[in-house]
Amino acid sequence: MNRQLHVTVVVDNTARNPDLLAEHGLCFWIEDGGHRLLFDTGQGAAVRANAGTLGVPLEQAEAIALSHGHYDHTGGLAEAWMTPAATPLYLHPAALAPRYRVSGGTAKEISMPRPVRDLVAHHMTSLRYTNQPTEIAPGAWLTGYVPRRHPEEEEEPEPFFLYPSGQQRDPLMDDQALYLVTVTGVIVLLGCAHAGVINTLDYIRDLTGNAPLRAVIGGMHLRAASAARLAWTVAQLQRLNPGMLVPAHCTGAPATEALAAAFGDRCRPCGAGATFDFANGTASTTQKEK
């Protein structure tokens, strides 16, 4: 039987048509055969409105997964988690920890918002912790903790800390990706790839027996990357040779331009409203309208 797999971008920093809201955040809706999954929830203002416009039935999600605990990926959980007593929430335990962006002596909390943490606390029996690779639906996996193997990706160029004093860097242990295993390769969805996009993809290749990468879609956290790191990342992605590359959210304009120059037609735009359809070993890009 042919497997039909569809990925809809519900929230991104940009929107594909004026009927959709854009916000700094990310949210994916995945339809894989009879399974429906939500990966991340954006900041909160856009997820329910965009889902309605796009015809995405949030109430039918059989599972929700969080890539990490930052507000721009978890803030919409209260809007998107329609039946928390019945729908499992997959996350790394560290996603619940407080964290801060400290710059110029000023600390800004960037954790999961407190109302969302309160919601989670009221539904602890629905939580599924992903300390290791975890299958959340047939063929749909979360990586859990991503090993940091490439020193080129060890430096976090942004001032993320565990305490408002700025005394301890946040190692972002909770960062994870979602990957979909198909007979012709793997489709990878990235939240922010704080663990490093190449660390993440190499780990997924390890977990899948070096299966080819059909597509890599999402945030690559290269917006503050040095020129040297960006050049290294492009070269490593060329080594990995994904069939499709869709930079989004925190990738940043310079990195997106570099990826487009290196990958040509294989590098495609994202934005809320974009839909990526995978079937018969091919992929197509469409745009859902109201």
Detail the poorly predicted runs. none
> Count of DSSP E strands?
17
Strand content: 25-35%
How many structural domains? 1
Descriptive keywords:
6-stranded mixed beta sheet; Metallo-beta-lactamase, Chain A; 7 helices; globular
Description:
By secondary structure, the chain is of the alpha/beta class. The protein has one domain (5-283): 4-Layer Sandwich (Metallo-beta-lactamase, Chain A). The protein has helices at 47-54, 71-74, 77-80, 114-121, 197-207, 227-240, 253-263; strands at residues 5-11, 27-32, 35-39, 63-65, 89-91, 100-103, 106-109, 127-129, 134-137, 140-142, 160-161, 178-182, 185-190, 213-219, 245-248, 274-279, 282-287. The strands form three sheets. An eight-stranded mixed β-sheet has the order 8-5-4-3-2-1-16-17. It has a six-stranded mixed β-sheet with strand order 9-10-12-13-14-15. Helix 5 (197-207) packs parallel to helix 6 (227-240) and helix 6 (227-240) packs parallel to helix 7 (253-263). The longest helix has 14 residues, at 227-240. It is globular. It starts with a strand and ends with a strand.
